[in-house]
Design a protein that fits this description.
- The longest helix is centred in the first third of the chain and has 29 residues.
- Helix 3 crosses helix 4 and helix 9 packs parallel to helix 11.
- It is built from 15 helices and 9 strands.
- Strand 8 and strand 9 form a beta hairpin.
- It is globular, with a radius of gyration of 23 Å.
- By secondary structure, it is of the alpha/beta class.
- The strands form 2 sheets. Strands 5-4-3-6-7-9-8 form a 7-stranded mixed β-sheet, with helices on both faces. Strands 1-2 form a two-stranded antiparallel ribbon.
- The chain has 2 domains: about 90 residues, Winged helix-like DNA-binding domain superfamily/Winged helix DNA-binding domain (Arc Repressor Mutant, subunit A); about 240 residues, Rossmann fold, CATH 3.40.50.150.
- One of its GO terms (biological process) is methylation.
- Keywords: Methyltransferase, Transferase.
- InterPro entries: Methyltranfer_dom (IPR025714), SAM-binding_MTase (IPR053173), SAM-dependent_MTases_sf (IPR029063), WH_DNA-bd_sf (IPR036390), WHD_Rv2258c (IPR048711).
């Protein structure tokens, strides 16, 4: 005999309303990505109130699609509509979070993760049933979106805010030191440092041939002679006491062999060198992330990308939300004895680990 738990009808109705709002907001996230990629937000930020044809003409787009997109934006509370004149307007207060000029506060750039991850939903569902993971190659545009993401939050703050977290580091970079970036992706961070510090020598490694090709092309376009990029698995690094500074930007938790990578980084540092690791600011425990402002988004990205690409390579699947506790544990296991964790007031998403070996 089974018993049925009584349902709190008011609670059930409130939750149904919440889920409908979730569906609406998910749809808005998808359309926000389109607004970013088509430069519609940037276009409208510079326009007075205009009709759909005028907006389409300025943006160089098809009016019928623009009109339907505007419908989603108006009903979603993003864009304002004057029914008397049939004109549309992007308020300056909204443009401050939706345009490229708003960097690093441009939320529209992050919305691109929603359709990007949705494209691999079938493969992820298969992984739920059969195990394994989805390889990097399945994620179209991932490096492009990731580069734009880090360009807003990390690269833009690198020289003026992140590097100064290490006392005296900027002066050393100006004098000339050896720097390695592991998991360098499209090379934006390394090329930025190479441009800012011409007396230092930089090398970047990444497993993606596409990302390295982009990094090399950007370095050549900037006429940078003090930076090199190579396709290499970070788990195979063999350098010993060769670098004054080693950096990783949002790269460790994706690795197939993250502990090996950290061990290699520790070995590659000079005795007085420092390892600067940027990664997602979070707890290793779900209950520690209940108040995280982007908790659901980051767990979703972790499930559908970070965890999966690691598992696809036979890795442990740490995931983006591996958290501070686990990060400290693994840094200590790699031989780092002096570790500081710092944050920047403008950046709620990331933590910056400053790790040194003693003796």
């Amino acid at each position: 005999m089974t018993t049925t738990t009584p349902i709190n009808q008011a609670k059930a109705e409130a939750f149904a309303d919440t889920m409908l709002e979730t569906l609406n907001r998910g749809a808005i996230a998808l359309m926000t990505s389109i607004g970013h990629r088509t430069h519609l937000f940037d276009t409208m930020a510079d326009l007075p109130p205009a009709n759909s044809q005028q907006i389409a003409d300025v943006a160089g787009l098809q009016e019928r699609y623009v009109r339907e997109w505007l419908g989603a934006m108006v009903t979603g509370g993003i864009i304002e509509h004057d029914p008397d004149n049939d004109t549309y307007h992007l308020p300056a207060e909204h443009a401050a979070a939706l345009t490229r000029e708003a960097s690093p506060d441009n939320v529209a750039a992050f919305a691109q993760y929603i359709p990007l991850l949705g494209a691999v939903e079938d493969q992820i569902v298969d992984c739920f049933r059969e195990g394994g993971g989805v390889p990097y190659s399945a994620y179209t545009r991932f490096h492009q979106v990731m580069a734009e993401d880090s360009g807003q939050t990390v690269v833009a703050a690198l020289v003026d805010h992140i590097l100064p977290l290490v006392p005296g580091l900027t002066a050393k970079l100006q004098q000339g030191i050896n720097v390695m970036d592991v998991g360098c992706g499209s090379g934006r961070a390394l090329n930025t440092m190479a441009q800012a510090f011409p007396h230092s020598r930089f090398i970047g490694y990444d497993i993606s041939e596409t990302a390295i090709a982009t990094a090399q092309a950007d370095a050549q376009a900037q006429n940078l002679s003090n930076v090199q990029f190579q396709v290499k698995d970070a788990a195979t690094l063999e350098a010993t006491a060769a670098y004054d500074l080693i950096t990783t930007f949002d790269a460790v938790h994706d690795q197939a062999h993250p502990q090996t990578v950290l061990n290699n980084i520790a070995r590659a540092l000079k005795p007085d060198g420092i390892y600067l690791m940027q990664d997602i600011r979070a707890s290793s425990h779900v209950h520690g992330n209940l108040e995280h402002p982007a908790g659901p988004l980051l767990y979703t990205i972790s499930c559908m990308h970070c965890t999966s690409v690691s598992l696809a390579m036979g890795g442990p699947g740490l995931g983006a939300m591996w958290g501070q506790e686990k990060a400290l544990e693994m840094l200590e296991a790699a031989g780092f004895e002096q570790i500081e964790v710092k944050q920047l007031c403008h950046d709620f998403q990331n933590s910056y680990y400053l790790a040194r070996k003693l003796g």
